Amino acid sequence: MKYIPLILLFSIFSLAQNEYPKDYFRSPLDIPLQLSGNFGELRPNHFHAGFDFKTNQKEGLNVYAVADGYISRIKVSTAGYGKAIYITHPNGYTSVYGHLQKAVGIIQDKIIALQYAEKSYEIEAFFKPGELVVKKGDIIALSGNTGGSEGPHLHFEFRDNKTEKIINPLFFGIQTQDTKNPIVSSLMVYPLDNSAVVNESKRPVLLNLSLQSDGTYLSQQVFASGKIGFGISATDNDNVSYNANGVYKTELISNGKVIFGYEFDTMVFDEAKYINAFIDYARYKKMRQRVQKLFMKNPFPWSNIYQNYENGILNIVPNTLEIQRIEVSDFFKNKTVISIPVKYSAKPALINEENKVTKYLVKSKVESNFEKDNFSVYFPAGTFYEDFYLNFDVRNNTLFLHDDSVPAHTNFTISIEDTKSSEEEKKKMFIASVNGTKLGYITTKLVGNTFTCKTRNLGQFTLAKDITAPKISMAKSIEGKWITNQKSINVTISDDLSGVKTYNGYINDKWVLFEYESKLKRLTHVFNDDLLQEGANKLKVVVTDNVGNSTIFETQFNRSQKK
Q1: Tell me: the pLDDT tens digits for 180-192?
Q2: What distance in Å separates the CA atoms of residue 115 and residue 522, rounded to the nearest whole number?
């Protein structure tokens, strides 16, 4: 089918005052736009904060300033948004462009100057009005795949300067064709207290759905007693993007009243982690399926919830015979409706809960401390969303700390005392996560004989020692060769245990910029003739891991200034 371009029509727009767009802004790309990710979409450990626009599976497309303004922030990182540019506009909003390959013109010159000034690839800089002024339609960068990106695309956001909230770009008039209803792929019902039973089960139950002649869905009947809640797996599509993206709005309706509802108009950065309380986290870890819970067993302050009567929990008592309804909508009012007949039943459970009781009870609102042998764990109050029984043990110098089926909202502390290793050995040691035979580095502090780290992940942990230096290699040697016409050089770097911490390159003993693409384990230097000598030039690359092991790679190449 023929694609319909998505033209970004941004304006001075207040959600609170419901004003209509007044000023029109252009698209950040000059191709028909397709989404590979939308606002509020469920991602690992966060809600997606903007739109991901496809770039035809390639890098290097022109990225345009959507309106007049000035570049207020530039950040270059090996993670997150990679190379990102922030443009502040005079109407009170900021547009964000992420995963860029590179900036262009004076913006790129500024970035390189900052990198050389700080002798670092990773930088962050803030600018005042008038320093880096841009006009609507200026090419500011080329699209890329830097940072945490898993493929070439442009990440785009729109933020309110006063509230610092991220705003759904659809409010600023993206024009697209969307006539498709959201898709609900599964419906779950949860027994939520010790006495609750659902369809003769004390465990969550997957409910069958059948399509009705009017286009709505009817769930299989729920026979229950006690407190219960519902959850759905749902996605949304438009007519041109073909990706299964996130849903905009969901409501649970009981007796004609919305008792639980959320929508993605705006988002608050500090609330992104609440996704792990919002979804059935244990099911996600076990089955990679994200079920969005339409209840809160323990309330959490997520501002996207706009209606929350009784926390979305239904109490099924004798003589209950009701039809519950779930409505899932997209921004363009396309809607999927599910009716759920619920009837009280006194039948006992035939399927009981898995035995989860241990002698270690963690209460979410109270701090906890557990110790065994030379290991200790401290959970501050509020670390977890719900109370649970913790599996805690130490065997063979390894801490067994439950598993990753329980999400933590904040960091907790692991401490390990070591009185046997020498001071020199301790300099190369750290607390590591254990996943089978693979060890993962965790930033660790040493005070006296005690190693400590902070983490948000349960699992297995041990003390590890890294005495192996990083590896540096060049696929095609340049030793003694003339490479006058070569525009750049690549070096592959890696570290098998604690990981790469720093990397520095030098030509003729002067620091030069190497860009690090961590996904490819590759350092790249683009030659600058002003830094080169006629004839022989020396190259040195120094890579250091997280415990101080270093490797130096040196070679010599020839270069002519006469081309």
Answers
A1: 999 999 999 999 9
A2: 18
